[in-house]
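Ticket opened by: R.M.
Priority: normal
Category: complex prediction / small molecule

The reporter submitted a protein together with copper (II) ion and asked that the result be attached to this ticket for the collaborator who will pick it up next week. Submitted input follows.
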Amino acid sequence: VEDGTRVFELRATAGTTDFGVGDSATRTWGFNGAYLGPTLRAERGEPVRIDVTNALPEATTVHWHGHELPAAMDGGPHQAIAPGAGWQPSWTVDQPAATTWYHPHPHGATAHQVSRGMAGMFILDDTTSRALELPDEYGVDDIPVIVQDQAFDDDGQFRRAEHPFSPVGHLGDQILANGTIGGYHEVTTERLRLRLLNASPARVYDFGLGDDREFALVGTDGGLLPAPHRTDAVRLSPGERAEIVVSLDPGERVVLRSTPPDLGTDPWTGRFAGGDDRFDILQLRAAEHLVPVPEVPDRLAGTPGLDPADAVATRRFRFSGISINDRRMVMDRVDEAVVADTTELWELSTSDGSPHNFHVHGARFTVLEVDGERPGPELTGWKDTVYLAPSTTTRVLVHFADHADPNLPFMIHCHFLRHEDQGMMLQFVIL
Ligand code: C2O
Ligand code: CU
Ligand code: CU
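Result attached by the on-call engineer:
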């Protein structure tokens, strides 16, 4: 902390990581280390500054996914950092407690940089989250789980070739949780909070536990849910997060896994989009004596409370054929303009048979309906990314941050990174 500002240093860097696969260590990229990056943490109301340096051989950017901040600090494609150069974004955190993350966003090269390992978690706290009795001791009973799928060649290097029939991009056959294949966590408490982040370029996971036991879903992208949702599965498409609380008995072992997700595609498309795949991701090993932890409270955060009657405009976005509304990303074209601190109704439809998702910068949203139906309890909190199955229409209420800038845009895009890189991205300004 310098003069009341919380300062972080991030150095984008190349290195090698030994994942225990193949003949040599894998050439990887990360922040402050060779793979992934440190967890950053700040409190609502706190001014933050991040001193970023780029020690990579190519330009990068660092985007704060899920943060509400001025467009100049967003780290999108317009905030490029040349090799050897630095960037010092600063803003004041003013949004509910949430599990957010950071990753590069250079136009056309996001998949390549993120899947080399450039991703980290950014946890936000507030007085509500601190007052709730949820497991919150970082590294003990509050654990980040950053999930990436990778494929390796015989030499141990990442293999990037994608299946020619893949509608979504590269899918790996090995799952890395926090950079480890087949890892485990030693559990010392009766309850454990896992902050799940899908940092994979194209894979959708249906996370659950090995014996199908229920857990409490307590948070999604933009913060805590109004109330915990007891379930045995949570779906995360690329970019989405979930906070779950798992209960364990002394001495038991249970695996966090992913079962074949129903992507809503036809079986052929689903197969090449990872819809048949199942993985063990992280084993939880409970000690013989577990420290007591209170039950998850019945109420968590307030309801987002966005009202369709407050929407000042309706916009429609059609995701199809690597375009949105038949447009592809053009760096110097702004596609939409909205007004700061207002709410709009956005209708997101898909029509090309491929899985997609929707992510918006500089805003958060709630899901009103999917194909005319109210969504389930897992979609009752703040979101910034949501899965869009083929031939569906999802209506969301988007609330734009109070950060106007007529000159610098925010992004709307599909977070399947190959789609994004190929141009399934538009730009909007907040006026
Ligand atoms: Cu996770 Cu536009 O980004
Ligand atoms: Cu983002
Ligand atoms: Cu897409």
